[in-house]
Design brief:
The complex is a heterodimer of chains A (685) and B (508).
Chain A lengths: L10 H18 L9 H23 L13 H30 L6 H18 L1 H26 L9 H10 L3 H7 L3 H7 L1 H4 L7 H19 L1 H4 L9 H5 L9 H31 L3 H17 L12 H24 L3 H26 L9 E12 L2 E9 L10 E8 L2 H12 L2 E3 L5 E4 L1 H5 L1 H9 L9 E5 L3 H11 L8 H4 L13 H8 L5 E10 L4 E11 L4 E5 L1 H10 L5 E5 L6 E5 L2 E9 L2 E10 L4 H22 L12 H4 L7 H6 L2 E8 L3
Helix pairs in contact in A: 1-3, 1-8, 1-10, 1-13, 3-4, 3-13, 3-14, 3-15, 4-13, 4-16, 5-10, 5-13, 10-13, 14-15, 14-16, 23-24
Chain B lengths: L11 E3 L16 H11 L6 E8 L2 E8 L5 H14 L6 H12 L5 E4 L2 H8 L3 E6 L5 E5 L28 H11 L5 E8 L5 E8 L5 H12 L13 H4 L12 E3 L2 H8 L4 E5 L5 E4 L10 H5 L2 H31 L6 H13 L4 H21 L5 H18 L5 H14 L6 H36 L1 E2 L2 E2 L11 H4 L6 H4 L18
Parallel strand pairs in B: 1-7
Antiparallel strand pairs in B: 2-3, 3-5, 4-6, 5-6, 7-8, 8-10, 9-11, 10-11, 12-13
The chains are: A alpha/beta (685), B alpha+beta (508).
């Protein structure tokens, strides 16, 4: 066995580092799961490790444990560790660049953030592994606090149905990071190889803590961090949005960012520390560490995705080879320098590099914040109205008037045209000279025509990172501009009272509401139907109210309107409302559902669809059960039989063999002729 | 007032006197020669007093510094018995008679060279010289004016002693000895400062202290190459671990003898400095900033509550201005709507950006604080009026600053006073976080906080991790750091500082 020096990382430590860095890479890059050349990230380090350890095993197997002679000297080990660590550093930083591009606002330069992050990591590496280890334990505590906080905020609004798209992604695509991580980890093989060396080799230092830290970061980011996931836009990573069911989670973003940045710094620090220690074991010099650190940073900047120089290299294999060659050349060049004994020049070079580094960071940091947008340069929007008139969109914005004398009467309403909603928003920014802020928007109101093409109207807002997912969407019977103007006038332009418009107690019945969140979840699912409330202005009672709902099927035409009881029935059947109390106006009985559960069993027999709908509920009185039965039965027959719309997703519940019976174009007819049996039963306790 | 211990049992380690003149010249036998030498050295100094004595059978002299000695004791305890005694022996025997038979005082030391003479007379001793003898006697009859023992101004507690350290070293030693009546408590005197020759005293429990830490401390003190030591902060940099200098000091400071006694029982070493009413404590870890004596006097539940409050207050004082700036500039969606409305309206009226406004108010506050410290007391009311009315009210009405920003800075300032010893790093850090937050948002703040915390975590104090027992973790976090357990639990386990987790030293 090779007599290892104290400052050369052991194989077990390398395994742990590889594992943790791989978790982070996969977590940070949502597209890596889709890339076919993921093997590049796994294959190259795997091959290196296999080759190195195979050689070490073969050559040392027959020699004495402490006096073994081998062709693999500690210096060669150190070179390999430097290369591998440097490689992963660069790869990690490249991933951080693309992650920052999703996350950061336009005013902050991602290069500045990554440079600052890397500088912090260099600082941490210089401080030593003990400091990093202790700091990672502090993060461990913070992560536990974060997980507890998330659970507290998330628990009241948690819904199993919201995770269905998540499961389908994992099972059907088989491309999610978690699946590949667990099933395709070569580190497990490395662990077996290095097991004779692992005993008593793992130091009581930060490496083990980094492992736990990374696992927990991974867990938190993927499973619970809905607010963080808001920034990961794109349809390939939708499950982050699904867990963001409550607005308060968005307010925990600073905590998530701190954990993410800090764990990234810990990881890179540990890699740089490995590089530094191995450099010192070979060269006994500190200056070379600085040179390699700067080289890693420069290479990362040059090789990031939208880099001018290497941006056109899409093939990761070529990119990986370039990185490895570059890093390998560096120690060779420095070895030559050492042999030429230009020690004094290296010291001067070190000082110059340090000064250049500090100046670069300082100037770029200072300059990066000069174009930030102040609050008074923003339009704080509290409500949006979208009217589509023929081919033209007109958006009406309810904004805060920052120049008002009193903050109470401080709302103004302005309208801006555009061919699309996005264009209309941009027009508003150009005309007012202010940047729009959508985070305080409480509702989006559409007119009938805009509601018919919901996708075109809402898509821009759904993809926007700022808007709250709990923002209500509603359709106005009249034009939204007129409705908004009337409502705001009645509120005397009080900004504190504006939530009355979106408050479910005033304008919407409690059974029917539709949010941006619902839109994002439903738009991915075919044959899923959305019910959007329609609001009207009652001029007699002088209030806004909602008594109807509109079905938007597959984001296409507005098909029909539902009254209150029909909407209620629809929501019960979809398991979207299972806890409600309402009064039957025609009788003296009240209907209460507590934690009801609806099960739908469709079957196709002899080319005819039969559906058994069972509602298990907590009804106490037989009269109430009858009332519910009658309401739902009437609604179902009206919606399904009269219009042929699969509003409760019967098709998705068919078994595979039944689906084969459905011919293209036949499903609507099949629905109309379906036999629906409705049962309302008391839930068994 | 003399309360000096007998010098015979005292180690007096002189440190680094290369720069001072070499006075280790033995006394001359001739009294005149000695007097002339002294006069020559004290030429142009009017405070030297040489009182020649024509005693019965011998000539002598009393040498002292004006206003350093108690003249009543000189007259009745020294001169009167000297004049009444008939000397008939050799000069050396006369010195012995004076030392053991004649004088009515107790603190008498034989000295043999001028270095000792100058040290003693400048410490308030009177020196008796006899013609024909090459040794002299120093008598401790200090009578210089000192400040009375009073309550420390910066280390205030609700319950507990109102005594604080004072300038004379010996008085401070007495304050400790009165509280710890145990022979295990040791006082080791050393001298530092090549010009000032300031005495310092190392206080420790011999059975409890780590000998490695003690010897390391002595080694660091021996490397102090200052000319003068006029405050505790002069020697703090020499006591810190090499290469681990950060914003936070790993040397504790206290003005309370009871606090120091408590620290000594845990294996720490106290350093008293003559002329300075504070004591230094080494090793010192970060968690100790949040501990006060009141915590141990109050009930455990309330003590735990105040401990947690202090942690939160520290975090608020450091992070709040930066967080406010970064969220207001880059992440306004974090604020509730009503709050955001009010902030936006207030900013609309002001000419500066949020970051500039916050930094301006922070700097104005620091100027006011510094002015309040330095200015004469009668003018203190003017500062209050200027600060409260002009800056607080008028500036807002004039539209120069916004009310929310002022409120944020005020809260941060109030929270920083909950731990006075941490004020210096807090003041700097909150400005740094404000700048970084205003330029790069939460991201930059996260990076800077990582740097600060890595810095904290990598720091050691005499080999003991600065952030222990939080990290590396030990269960004593829940007994005496985050919470304060009942005394019945605390008294069961004797915690020593050298046994902290992560420390390389361990003793039973």
């Amino acid at each position: 066995m090779i007599k290892t020096q104290n400052n050369v990382i052991t194989s077990a430590q390398l395994f742990i580092l590889l594992f943790t860095i791989k978790i982070s890479i996969i977590v940070l890059d949502p597209y890596i799961a889709q890339k076919n050349d993921l093997l590049t990230d796994i294959l190259i380090p795997f091959l290196i490790i296999i080759i190195v350890y195979s050689l070490s095993l073969i050559t040392t197997y027959y020699y004495d444990k402490y006096n073994g002679k081998t062709i693999i000297t500690p210096e060669i080990y150190s070179y390999i560790y430097i290369i591998v660590s440097g490689y992963f550093c660069i790869l990690f930083l490249i991933r951080m660049f693309s992650f920052c591009q999703c996350f950061l606002s336009d005013e902050i330069n991602d290069v500045i953030i990554v440079i600052s992050l890397f500088s912090a990591a260099v600082y941490g590496a210089k401080k030593g592994i003990e400091g990093i280890a202790r700091y990672s334990f502090l993060l461990f505590i913070l992560i536990i606090i974060a997980i507890i906080t998330i659970v507290i905020f998330l628990y009241p609004s948690y819904n199993n149905d919201n995770l269905k798209p998540v499961n389908s992604e994992i099972i059907m695509n088989n491309g999610s990071g978690l699946v590949r991580l667990i099933s395709g980890s070569p580190e497990l093989i490395v662990l077996l190889l290095c097991s004779p060396y692992s005993k008593d080799n793992i130091k009581k230092s930060g490496i083990s803590w980094l492992f736990f830290l990374s696992v927990f970061v991974c867990f938190m980011l993927i499973l619970l961090s809905g607010a963080l996931g808001v920034y990961l836009s794109g349809p390939t990573f939708p499950y982050f949005r699904i867990t963001d069911a409550s607005g308060p989670l968005q307010r925990l973003n600073p905590m998530f960012i701190v954990i993410l940045i800090s764990s990234a710094i810990c990881l890179i620090s540990s890699f740089l520390y490995i590089i530094r220690q191995n450099i010192r074991s070979i060269y006994n010099s500190e200056s070379i560490f600085w040179i390699i650190a700067v080289s890693v940073l420069v290479l990362s900047i040059l090789l990031k995705d939208n880099s001018v120089i290497f941006g056109y290299i899409y093939n990761d294999m070529i990119r990986a080879i370039i990185i490895i060659i570059s890093i390998f050349i560096m120690p060779a060049m420095l070895l030559i320098l050492k042999k030429l004994k230009k020690i004094n020049q290296k010291i001067i070079l070190l000082k110059k590099l340090s000064i250049v580094f500090i100046i670069t960071i300082s100037i770029s940091t200072i300059l990066s914040g000069c174009n930030s947008t102040q609050l008074n340069q923003r339009m704080i929007v509290q409500g949006i109205g979208i009217d589509k008139i023929e081919d033209q969109y007109e958006i009406t914005l309810i904004m805060l008037d920052t120049e008002a004398e009193s903050s109470e009467n401080s709302l103004i309403i302005k309208s801006f045209p555009g061919k699309t909603t996005e264009q209309a928003i941009k027009n508003s920014e150009n005309i007012t000279g202010k940047k729009i802020l959508l985070s305080q928007c409480l509702f989006i109101m559409l007119n009938n025509q805009a509601g018919q093409e919901l996708d075109k109207a809402i898509q821009y807002f759904a993809d926007n990172n700022e808007i709250m997912k709990t923002t209500n969407i509603m359709i106005s019977e009249d034009s939204s501009k007129k409705t908004i103007e009337t409502a705001i006038e009645k509120l005397n332009y009080h900004s504190e009272d504006i939530n009355v418009i979106s408050d479910s107690n005033t304008t919407q019945q409690p059974v029917s509401h539709f949010t941006v969140f619902d839109y994002i979840v439903n738009r991915k699912n075919k044959y899923n139907t959305m019910v959007i409330p329609v609001i009207k202005y009652n001029r007699i009672d002088d209030i806004l109210y909602s008594s109807d709902s509109v079905i938007i099927d597959e984001l296409s035409m507005n098909s029909m309107e539902l009254n209150e009881s029909e909407t209620l029935s629809f929501l019960i059947l979809n398991n979207r409302i299972n806890n409600i109390t309402l009064n039957n106006n025609n009788s003296r009985h009240s209907l209460t559902l507590n934690y009801s559960d609806t099960k739908i069993k469709p079957k196709i027999t002899n080319n005819r669809l039969s559906v058994i709908i069972s509602i298990y509920t907590d009804l106490n009185k037989p009269q109430d059960r009858t009332f519910l039965y009658e309401q739902i039965d009437k609604s179902m027959k009206k919606i399904i039989n009269n219009n042929g719309y699969d509003i409760i997703g019967i098709y998705n519940k068919l078994s595979d063999k039944d689906i084969k019976s459905v011919k293209p174009g036949n499903w609507k007819q099949m629905l109309k002729e379906s036999l629906i049996t409705l049962k309302v039963m008391k839930k068994k306790t | 007032m003399s309360n000096i211990m007998n010098n015979n049992g005292r180690t007096n380690n002189k440190v680094n006197n290369q720069k001072s003149k070499d006075y280790s010249i033995s006394f001359y036998s001739s009294l005149e020669q000695n007097i002339n030498f002294i006069k020559n050295e004290f030429s142009l100094s009017e405070d030297i007093t040489i009182h020649k004595l024509a005693l019965k059978g011998i000539n002598g002299a009393v040498i002292s510094l004006d206003n350093m000695i108690n003249k009543d004791i000189l007259a009745f305890g020294i001169l009167k018995p000297l004049y009444n005694y008939h000397f008939c022996n050799t000069p050396d025997k006369a010195i012995n008679d004076i030392e053991f038979k004649i004088l009515y005082t107790d603190d008498i030391t034989e000295i043999f060279n001028f270095e000792q003479l100058f040290t003693f007379i400048m410490s308030g001793f009177a020196v008796i010289a006899v013609d024909g003898s090459s040794k002299m006697l120093s008598i401790g009859i200090q009578g210089y004016k000192t400040r009375g023992i009073s309550e420390p101004e910066s280390d205030v507690i609700q319950r507990g002693s109102k005594e604080g350290f004072v300038e004379p070293l010996r008085t401070n030693m007495t304050l400790l000895r009165r509280r710890i009546k145990n022979t295990d408590l040791k006082f080791e005197i050393m001298t530092i400062g090549t010009l000032s020759n300031t005495e310092i005293c190392l206080c420790y429990f011999q059975e409890t202290v780590s000998q490695e830490i003690l010897s390391e401390l002595k080694r660091r003190i021996s490397q102090i190459d200052l000319e003068t030591v006029l405050a505790a902060g002069y020697i703090v940099p020499y006591l810190e671990d090499k290469g681990k200098k950060t914003l936070f000091s790993c040397v504790g400071i206290t003005e309370r003898p009871d606090t120091l006694c408590g620290k000594l029982t845990e294996g720490r070493i106290g350093i008293l400095i003559d002329g300075v009413p504070t004591a230094l404590i080494v090793p010192y870890i970060f968690a100790e900033y949040f501990q006060t004596l009141d915590d141990y006097s109050n009930r455990p539940y309330f003590a735990s509550f105040t401990r947690i409050l202090k942690f939160f207050a520290f975090l608020i004082s450091v992070f709040l201005p930066g967080l406010y700036t970064s969220l207001g500039t880059f992440n306004p969606e974090m604020f509730p709507t009503l709050t955001l409305n009010k902030i936006a309206v207030s900013i609309a009226d002001t000419p500066l950006s949020l970051m500039a406004e916050t930094i301006l108010i922070l700097l104005v506050y620091e100027i006011m604080r510094e002015s309040g410290l330095r200015m004469p007391q009668p003018l203190g009311y003017a500062v209050s009026i200027v600060g409260g009315l002009v800056i607080g009210d008028t500036a807002i009405n004039a539209g120069l600053i916004g009310a929310p920003t002022l409120m944020v800075v005020a809260i941060s300032a109030i929270c920083s006073y909950i731990i006075p010893n941490l004020y210096a790093p807090t003041a700097i850090l909150r400005i740094a976080f404000t700048v970084v937050g205003g330029l790069t948002g939460i991201w930059g703040m996260a990076i800077l906080s990582s740097v600060v915390f890595i810095d904290l975590c990598s720091k050691t104090s005499f080999g003991i991790p600065y952030t222990s027992p939080v990290t590396p973790f030990a269960d004593s976090v829940f007994r005496d750091v985050l919470l304060r357990a009942d005394w019945k639990i605390l008294s069961k386990r004797k915690e020593k500082i050298q046994n902290m987790p992560g420390s390389e030293l361990y003793e039973e």
